[in-house]
Design brief:
110 residues; alpha/beta; 4-stranded parallel beta sheet; 4 strands; 42% helix; globular
Length: 110
């Protein structure tokens, strides 16, 4: 909740790094809940087009739908960051547009 408040505080602030996202594309992993979802929503509020990925397709789509309902552009995609094939599959989707920012919000342990 603290990080989400910090992101919210940056929104709309002149000179904020978030103010430079208009029209950009962001790919955010682990965005089905928590800080990843907050980052996805914050980027979308600054008019970035957002690829919301999560191991749970339903969770990713819920966040993407909330972004679209607020007037943003987002896609919810299932992605298991521990699976190389998932990276390749999502990358193919992202490449069809253009990725300007990538936030990897999921720790990967061996």
């Amino acid at each position: 909740a603290g990080a989400a408040r910090q992101l919210a505080a940056l929104q709309g602030r002149p000179g904020s790094p978030l103010m430079k996202l208009d029209g950009r594309i962001a790919w955010i992993t682990g965005a089905g809940a928590g800080i990843g979802a907050a980052i996805a929503r914050a980027f979308a509020a600054e008019r970035a087009r957002v690829f919301v990925t999560d191991i749970s397709a339903a969770a990713a789509e819920r966040v993407a739908e909330s972004i679209r309902a607020a007037g943003g552009t987002a896609w919810g995609i299932a992605q298991d960051v521990a699976q190389e094939a998932d990276w390749e599959r999502v990358l193919a989707d992202v490449r069809r547009l253009r990725r300007d920012a990538w936030i990897h919000g999921v720790p990967v342990t061996a």
